[in-house]
Design a protein that fits this description.
By secondary structure, this protein is of the alpha+beta class. The protein has a single domain, classed as Cytochrome p450. It contains 19 helices and eleven strands. The strands form three sheets. A six-stranded mixed beta sheet has the order 1-2-3-9-6-4. β2 and β3 form a beta hairpin. The longest helix is centred in the middle third of the chain and has 31 residues. The chain starts with 5 loop residues before the first strand and ends in a 7-residue tail after the last strand.
Length: 412
């Protein structure tokens, strides 16, 4: 297959941010393994379902960005290690060790016990929205819901939630402001450093006043068992904090927008609420919050679709393209809440399959169910073209704002 390097500026446009799926379709058809050159970093994109699933379990594609090659330096800069040298960016046996420690905190039984508290948080947020008749759902609902849940689960004091949220949002929305790039990078680095220092101080406070929460359990693994180093204690907490709210917030926004722009599917779900569990899987397949899996590094020359990916190359597995592959999904660009549940890759695949899947599904079910029930007549508050999104080149697919209107009511 002829290899043609695609410029990132030709892909990551405003049109792509609004709807990346026509671009993904062209890549799958014309260049399913596509080298892309961009200012951030060059990478090979893998876009078909079969190749994506294979790549996600390919031991030649390493997640260890902090090994001998020190790939994190060229990808994310020198300040990233203090927060990002964690389970996500590691291979077995390190990944296996870290995942085993963390998985106990996300056991389905423990997560299910949170259901009443999640419902309480959802109702509390909606109690403020319901009387208004309009809302900006990202900042009034979709973002605070998973942030409040993960902060409580971790044991981050309520008084600190607002500033922790501010720091994480600076990182999430990088590239969306009109500031010069150097100012944007400086803001992100400052937020990373402040969040790192906060977590270091929080560990000291938690040691002085132990509590029955995830951070307390991680500290115990560090201090008593020696299973975690001090640095791993901080980076693991950051991973759980960021991953525990970022993708869920973006999913809630994407899912709500998808329903609002597909009124027949919206009405189907409103009148058939028992479809909600399977609908969430379809909404995740249709427009997931993590379009490209976190970077992998080729540890040797690797061939996919006749294209040689040279040793040391960055590989991006395009989850959202794989989930629209017509070889695996009939009419993949159609939102079909009655679709027979298929093997989508929205939660990943293999050893890096999402650890927080039970929590994400529960928050999505409770959150979307409450929106359908408590906001009658829900509709977009601006034309679709005016909905503000994360930048096209962002590693996340999500909305900056989601203005809506509905029938105001004093009742719950």
């Amino acid at each position: 297959m002829t290899e043609h390097v695609v410029r990132g500026s030709d892909i990551y446009t405003d049109e792509f941010a609004a709807d990346p799926y026509p671009t993904f379709a062209r890549l799958r058809a014309d260049q399913p393994v596509c080298p892309v050159s961009s200012p951030r970093f060059d990478q090979y994109l893998i876009t078909t379902f079969d190749d994506a699933r294979a790549a996600l379990t390919d031991p030649r594609l390493s997640k260890d960005l902090y090994g001998p090659g020190q790939h994190y330096l060229r990808l994310f800069g020198p300040n990233s290690e203090g927060l990002n040298k964690n389970m996500l960016n590691s291979d077995p046996p390190e990944h296996t060790r870290l995942r085993r420690i963390i998985s106990q905190a996300f056991a389905p039984r423990r997560i299910e016990a949170l259901r009443p508290r999640v419902a309480q948080i959802v109702d509390g947020l909606l109690d403020k929205i319901v009387p208004q008749g309009r809302a900006e759902l990202m900042h009034e609902f979709a973002i605070p819901l998973p942030m409040m849940v993960i902060c409580e689960l971790l044991g981050i004091p309520e008084a600190d939630h607002a500033r922790v949220l501010d720091w994480t949002q600076v990182i999430r929305t990088s590239g969306s402001s009109r500031r010069p790039p150097e100012e944007e990078r400086a803001a992100v680095q400052e937020a990373q450093l402040k969040l790192h220092d906060y977590l270091v101080d929080l560990m000291q406070a938690k040691r002085a006043h132990p509590a029955d929460d995830i951070i307390g359990a991680l500290i115990d693994s560090c201090d008593r068992d020696g299973a975690l180093s001090e640095a791993e204690l901080v980076t693991t907490t950051f991973l759980l904090l960021f991953a525990g709210h970022q993708t869920t917030a973006d999913f809630l926004g994407n899912a709500t927008l998808a329903l609002l722009t597909h009124p027949e599917q919206f009405e189907l779900l409103r009148t058939t609420p028992q479809l909600l569990p399977s609908a969430i899987e379809e909404l995740l397949r249709f427009d997931g919050p993590l379009p490209v899996a976190s970077p992998r590094i080729a540890t040797e020359d690797v061939e996919y679709q006749g294209v040689c990916i040279p040793r040391g190359s960055v590989v991006g597995v395009v989850i959202n393209s794989a989930n629209h592959d017509p070889a695996h999904f009939a009419d993949p660009d159609q939102l079909d809440l009655r679709r027979v549940r298929g093997p989508h890759l929205g939660f990943g695949y293999g050893v890096h399959y999402c650890l927080g899947v039970s929590l994400a599904r529960m928050e999505a079910q409770i959150g979307l169910s409450a929106l359908l029930r408590r906001l009658p007549g829900l509709r977009l508050g601006v034309p679709l073209a005016e909905v503000r999104r994360l930048p096209a080149a962002s590693p996340f697919r999500g909305l900056l704002e989601l203005p809506v209107t509905f029938a105001a009511s004093a009742a719950s």
